[in-house]
Write a structure and sequence with these properties.
This is Programmed cell death protein 2 C-terminal domain-containing protein. By secondary structure, the chain is mainly β. 0% of the residues lie in helices and 24% in strands. The chain has one domain.
């Protein structure tokens, strides 16, 4: 995992588009963290009878509101996730 709020993510290929506005406050969305393939061996499907890693992805990017517009009475906020798969 790479955490680096408001930095530039390490991507497999250039992003065509990334989220621009928060759906709650219309504030700017910024890159917050990234899941990289090295975490694959730690991911397991709960319903899988075999206890082995079967998930595959290139990289997962998570964007959040720059203003962190949630409040103490907010129970849930949906963030924006972009998944890039490896191109063979």
């Amino acid at each position: 995992m790479q955490y680096s709020r408001e930095s530039i993510p390490l991507v497999l290929y250039p992003l065509q588009d990334h989220p621009k506005k928060c759906q709650y406050c219309q504030g700017e969305m910024v890159f917050e963290f990234q899941l990289v393939p090295t975490i694959i061996s730690k991911l397991k499907l709960v319903t899988d009878p075999k206890l082995c890693a079967r998930l595959e992805f290139g990289t997962v990017l998570v964007y959040t509101c720059r203003k962190s517009c949630w409040s103490t009475d907010t129970t849930l906020r949906i963030e924006t996730v972009i998944m890039q798969t490896e191109v063979y």
